[in-house]
Amino acid sequence: MTDTNNIKIYCFLGLPASGKGTQVSILAQKTGAQVLGIGNLIREEIEQADLTDPFYAEMKDKYDKGIPQSDQVVFDIVKKHLNYHKNRDIIFDNFPFSTVQAKSFFDLCEELGHKPILIIVSIDPQTALNRIVHRKICSLCETVYIDSEASMCEKCGGALISRSDDTVETVEKRIKFYLPRIKEVKEIFASHDSVCDINGEGSIEEVTKLIEAALDDIK
After folding, report:
1. Cα–Cα distances in Å, from 179 out to 44, 129, 138, 205?
2. What's the DSSP call for residue 159?
3. I need a labelling partner for 132 at 20 to 30 A (CA). Which of 13, 64, 87, 88 fits?
4. What parts of the chain have a pLDDT lower than 70?
5. Are residues 32 and 214 in contact, defined by beta-carbon separation less than 8 angstroms?
6. Does residue 56 form part of some domain?
7. Residue 11 DSSP SS3
8. Residue 49 three-state SS
9. Is residue 154 in a domain?
């Protein structure tokens, strides 16, 4: 029987192009944790739903328009998956993303006997902007390339493409939306002494080492 007191719950936040996704993958490989990306969970929920139901029809409409789901919708999905994966370590990617979500999440984790840890991969907004407008993404495996002249992916041979929404104007709007939300969630976790704020400006290896050291300190 698994000792639920030893289950680890990690939450990752960061600006677009912070390298957060890469660090999520590295920590998952190291710990064997189940990665739960909120965007993926919402998409799966919609794909399995009866879209004649007004509730799910509204969810799909928001998803298609890029409008964030309500805090309650997000939390209900998270609660379902947290219970489903209750016997293993979990990494939430891009959650919680508001004060309401963070407070509700802490209450739920407390009921389950867990103390979630927030890992923020912090980069300067200008770094995020520079990385995004100069990045290409593999059309097949979604590997990200920054400042690369290549046209094909080294891993799978897929074509490298630039996303249509990776424009300066769009990225600046995304950054302005992210910054206050990351700040308010950080404050909630800080009140529980459960934040690792990591400098994400270095290499992948350097950032990984910083995360490992911070997690050792917070245990």
Report:
1. 27, 13, 27, 25
2. B
3. 64
4. 1-5, 164-165, 219
5. no
6. yes
7. strand
8. coil
9. no
Q: Where are the alpha helices (DSSP H) in 35-167?
A: 38-47, 54-65, 71-84, 99-112, 125-133
Distance (Å) of CA 136 to CA 66, 141, 143, 148: 21, 12, 8, 8
Classified as helix, coil or strand, 147 is coil
DSSP 103-127: HHHHHHHHHHT---EEEEEE--HHH
- Which residue has 């993404």 as its token pair? 137
What pLDDT sits at residue 165?
67
| Residue 2: per-residue pLDDT | 41
Q: Using CA atoms, how far apart are residues 88 and 70, in angstroms rounded to an integer?
A: 27
Q: Are 13 and 182 in contact (CB under 8 A)?
A: yes
Distances (CA, A) of 86 to 27, 38, 82, 217: 18, 17, 6, 24
Beta partners for 166?
none
- DSSP 8-state code for residue 87: T
Has residue 131 been placed in a domain?
no
What is the total count of domains within the chain? Answer: 1
Domain hosting residue 87, numbered range: 4-124+179-218
CATH code where residue 90 lies: 3.40.50.300
Whether residue 160 is contained in a domain is answered as no
- What lies within 8 Å, CB to CB, of 12 at 6+ separation is 20, 23, 24, 91, 92, 93, 94, 118, 119, 120, 121
Residue 187 CA, distance from chain mean position: 18
